[in-house]
Write a structure and sequence with these properties.
The complex is a heterodimer. Chain A is an alpha+beta fold. Chain A is built from eight helices and 18 strands. Chain A has helices at residues 40-48, 94-104, 109-122, 138-151, 168-185, 196-202, 220-225, 230-235; strands at 2-11, 14-24, 29-33, 55-60, 63-67, 79-82, 156-160, 188-193, 205-210, 213-218, 240-244, 247-251, 257-259, 268-277, 282-288, 293-298, 309-313, 320-322. In chain A, strands 6-7-8-3-9-10 form a six-stranded mixed sheet, sandwiched between helices. A five-stranded antiparallel sheet of chain A has the order 13-17-14-15-16, with no helix packed on it. In chain A, strands 2-1-4-5 form a four-stranded antiparallel sheet, covered by helices on one side. Chain A is elongated. The two termini of chain A are 31 Å apart. Chain B is mainly alpha-helical. Chain B has two domains: 22-51 and 361-577, MetI-like fold; 72-120 and 153-296, MetI-like (MetI-like fold), CATH 1.10.3720.10. Chain B is built from 24 helices and no strands. In chain B, α7 (163-188) packs across α9 and α14 packs across α24 (543-568). The longest helix of chain B is centred in the N-terminal third of the chain and has 35 residues, at 16-50. Chain B is globular and about 80 Å long. The N and C termini of chain B lie far apart (59 Å). Classes of the chains: A alpha+beta, B mainly alpha.
């Protein structure tokens, strides 16, 4: 189990990581999700041992890895890191890249060879072991980075926005690929990303970060359906935030029901200001009587003209109360 | 069968700051020592000497008064300015026109023109000056002789031993500066930028005037400034062409201060100060010009570049464009080659029995001085290149990785010699190392150190741009896989730098081989190099020996450039500068 306690890191006065607490269970995939500058990459660098915290501590099991007083250097942490830039070494072949960590551990040659081959087969690069990175596509380089990190069978695998340099199709494929590698190896992963879909596909649990703090930790469906804060509600998926009876309410656009006005007073009234047909859905922008703007997604068969008066029904079960 | 972390948990907790600082600190101290030796001490002594009385060592302004109050010392300053402005104007106009023809039009023979201009770039201008002495010396020059024979006139029309002659020769070898800057810009500029103007109704000339030229202006101005500085700082061509005409420029005047007995180093140091200040401020101006507009022209990367049709003007322009390589490469090299193959050059190369390999045999086998000079040039250059590359790469590594606060000062020191003209640098080295504690004058060490310093900025900028391209992730990846910091450096960063370091090495070695203006102040009879031997022979009027050594030097240079080009690619071309 990885335990982060009251971890804090500042750069020349500005706070990057602000006293966060987090626990990651063995064999779990934890995503650190947030916009750029939220502190997720700094957290990862602290975990990897490249940075020294100002306060707080990081433990794996009972072993204290980082505190303000001392930091175990990266090479003694038994954690592998996948870099956003892949950091595949251009002067080494695929096999030499993967063998590096095993050579550092002074394993016998024969064993290195079989383990390199096995790891490359696992990431489906078995045929390319003698190529140089420059001869590989971006996706293949990503697989080399994964194989190199997994070959040493680390206790923890850290991934720093590993898919952000890939094109959209490949990214979708690699999400499932990384999840598959996890399910096969059972390795504990901490996965940094700003892409909520990526986090939802890969992770068992998601820690949503903002301004150096962890706003909410939970399984993907909890984060989406039960957002605890205004930031989580608006960062994960689209939402409408309303002030009702002195409370802040979040309701997802597809959960609002639209109808022509009937004589009913318990719903919100509004006027359609914009409308877009998106094939599977229709998107409406609606201005309420008191000037608030709502976004509503309906099925393609629900048709209202721009300018039309409508009523919005907010099912009680879909409304979430939010703390600011 | 998980593999554990390589170290036992007991000794894992290590203080990060201590871990990083120790090797870095040692490296930092070593670099500081090297930079002090190469840069700080010579510049410091140069400035100090200029304020010192020659006998009492007391501080005084007398040297400045002496240097700038006599008419005979002020005239060279005027001459230098005249020379430099004329050269810069000619080189900029011709270089820009040529760049436009080669980069933007369908001029025939473009692909031959580029390597020929490159050959002019690589040719040291003092050799060009020698070549032109054979062609246009007042009586014995071949062009003049042909003229006299053809028109039965008393004198030929040309006299290379004159201010005009010097301007002409120096301009020939400055044109490649502007050419390479402007053509690089024009090569990057997509036609769309011009088309945008054309579609708005602007004609060809108006488009050139209002779009193409302004976009190329930073490059043109850079070419102008560098040609100006080059002409101001050159020693070889003025020494060969103007001293016989009894005219002095600042560099030759500095040499005269030195060749007085005893040498008037203090006055020379004071006299060199304007050169230093002008160079520093103009290079600053050039950086500003480039810095502000660099990205506007490089913007359209994917754009199409169409060539302008010259139509009926194709061949006339071809003729015009090839005048430059004719004058800067073909004619002088032919002359030099023929002279080197003549027993006695004034008899003309085709006089019966005059054609011989005697001088090559003489230079390589018979004469000890020339043979030694070749060995010295190669070995001093190699040691200087190694020294410069080691210092430059270490400083660049510390600066790029920001290993400790204040490291930017090191980077500044490593590029500072860029503003030192060769002669000024030599005066600094002379002033600093002709007395204890470090008595280097008269040894090979002072030449090696001067070369290393002079070309340190080239090596530094090359190494640091390579290091900037290497993300720390590459090293950090090795760390996470269990390698310690030194092992990561040694197995990842060092091999990745190898190619770039080789480039840096050549970028120092090649210009060191051709270095004259500092060498001529620092050599002694035991430490002759190729260029100083050429200078001595030229002084003594032994032009066959001058040509032979010149040809040998250029053969060595071209072989190295070509081999390096094959090995590494285009970066080598910059070594010509």
């Amino acid at each position: 189990m990885i335990t982060i306690k009251q971890l804090r890191k500042t750069y020349e006065g500005s706070v990057a990581v602000d006293r966060i607490d987090l626990e990651v269970k063995d064999g779990e995939v934890m995503a650190l999700l947030g916009p750029s500058g939220c502190g997720k990459t700094t957290t990862l660098q602290l975990l990897a041992g490249f940075l020294k915290p100002d306060a707080g501590e990081i433990r794996v099991g009972d072993r204290l890895l980082s505190s303000a007083r001392s930091v175990v250097p990266p090479e003694r942490r038994n954690m592998s890191l996948i870099f956003q830039s892949y950091a595949v070494w251009p002067h080494k072949t695929v096999a030499e890249n993967v063998a590096y960590g095993l050579e550092v551990r002074k394993l016998p040659r024969a064993e290195i060879k079989t383990r390199v081959q096995r790891t490359l087969d696992r990431v489906k690069l078995g045929q390319l072991s003698h190529r140089y990175p420059a001869e590989l596509s971006g996706g293949q380089q990503q697989r080399v980075a994964l194989a190199r990190a997994l070959a040493v069978e680390p206790q923890v695998l850290l991934l720093d926005e590993p898919l952000s340099n890939l094109d959209a199709n490949l990214r979708e494929e690699m999400r499932f690929e990384i999840r598959r590698l996890h399910d096969e190896t059972g390795i504990t992963m901490i996965y940094v990303t700003h892409d909520q879909t990526e986090a939802m596909v890969v992770a068992d649990r998601i820690a949503v970060m903002n301004l150096g703090r962890v706003e909410q930790v939970g399984e993907p469906h909890e984060i989406y359906e039960l957002p605890a804060t205004r930031f989580v509600a608006s960062f994960i998926g689209r939402t409408n935030l309303l002030q009702l009876n002195g409370k802040t309410i979040s309701i997802r656009p597809h959960q609002v029901l639209l109808s022509k006005p009937i004589e009913a007073t318990h719903c919100l009234k509004g006027r359609i200001t914009r409308h877009a047909y998106l094939g599977e859905t229709r998107d409406y922008v609606i201005e309420t009587a008191d000037g608030a703007i709502m976004r509503v997604t309906t099925g393609p068969e629900v048709i209202h003209e721009v300018g039309a008066e409508v009523e919005m029904h907010l099912p009680l079960g879909a409304c979430r109360e939010i703390t600011e | 069968m998980a593999v554990g972390a390589p170290a036992a948990p007991g000794r894992t907790a290590l203080n990060l700051t201590r871990f990083r600082l120790e090797p870095a600190l040692i490296l930092g101290v070593l670099c500081l020592a090297a930079l002090s030796f190469l840069v700080v001490v010579p510049i410091g002594w140069l400035v100090l000497t200029s304020f010192q009385d020659s006998d009492t060592q007391a501080l005084t302004l007398r040297n400045y008064f002496e240097a700038f109050s006599h008419r005979i010392y002020l005239e060279p300053i005027a001459n230098s300015l005249r020379l430099a402005i004329s050269v810069a104007a000619i080189a900029t106009i011709v270089g820009t026109a040529l760049a436009w023809l080669v980069s933007r039009t369908d001029l025939p023979g473009r692909s031959i023109l580029r390597p020929l201009i490159l050959a002019a770039f690589v040719t040291p201008s003092f050799l060009g000056a020698e070549g032109w002495i054979f062609l246009a010396a007042p009586n014995s020059g071949w062009i003049n002789k042909i003229w006299v024979a053809l028109f039965h006139s008393e004198h030929g029309p040309l006299n290379v031993f004159s201010m005009q002659g010097a301007i002409f020769v120096i301009a020939l070898y400055s044109i490649p500066y502007t050419f390479s800057f402007v053509s690089a810009t024009l090569d990057m500029m997509p036609s769309e930028l011009e088309d945008a103007a054309t579609t708005l109704g602007s004609g060809i000339f108006r488009t050139m005037w209002s779009v193409t030229l302004p976009l190329a202006l930073p490059a043109i101005l850079s070419g102008f400034l560098l040609s100006f500085l080059e002409a101001l700082e050159l020693f070889g061509p003025p020494a060969f062409l103007l001293i016989p005409a009894r005219q002095q420029v600042m560099t030759t005047q500095l040499y005269l201060f030195f060749s007085d007995y005893p040498p008037r180093v203090e006055v020379a140091a004071a006299y060199a100060m304007p050169l230093l200040l002008v160079t520093a401020s103009l290079l600053l101006v050039q950086r500003r010009i480039i810095g502000r507009r660099r990205f506007t022209t490089v913007g359209g990367k994917g754009g199409v570049r169409r060539r302008m049709q010259l139509r009926t003007w194709r061949w006339p322009f071809f003729g015009l464009a090839f005048i430059l390589p004719l004058l800067s490469v073909i004619l002088p090299y032919t002359a030099m080659l023929l002279v080197s193959l003549s027993k006695n050059w004034s008899a003309g190369p085709f006089a019966p029995g005059n054609l011989t390999l005697y001088w090559y045999d003489w230079a390589l086998n018979v004469n000890g001085t020339t043979r030694e000079a070749i060995v010295h040039s190669l070995s001093y250059g190699a040691v200087a290149a190694t020294l410069a590359v080691v210092v430059a790469t270490a400083v660049a590594y510390m600066a790029v990785r920001k290993l400790f606060p204040g490291v930017q000062t090191f980077a500044f020191l490593a590029v500072a010699p860029f503003v030192l003209p060769g002669i000024v640098l030599a005066i600094g080295f002379f002033a600093a190392y002709t007395h204890p504690p470090l008595l280097l004058y008269g040894t090979a060490g002072i030449l090696v150190a001067a070369y290393a310093t002079r070309f340190l900025p080239i090596a530094f900028s090359n190494s640091s741009s390579i290091l900037q391209g290497l993300t720390t992730d590459l090293e950090n990846a090795a760390r996470t896989l269990g390698a310690g910091p030194l092992r990561s450096l040694w197995t990842i960063t060092v091999p990745l730098l190898r190619r770039g370091v080789l480039t840096s090495w050549l970028l120092v070695f090649i210009p060191a081989l051709k270095e004259l203006s500092a060498s001529v102040f620092l050599y002694t009879s035991h430490t002759q190099v190729i260029t100083t031997v050429i200078y001595d022979f030229s002084d003594a009027g032994n032009f066959e020996a001058v040509s032979t050594m010149g040809v040998l030097m250029m053969v060595i240079t071209f072989v190295i450039v070509i081999v390096a080009y094959r090995l590494i690619g285009r970066e080598v071309i910059r070594s010509a500068a």
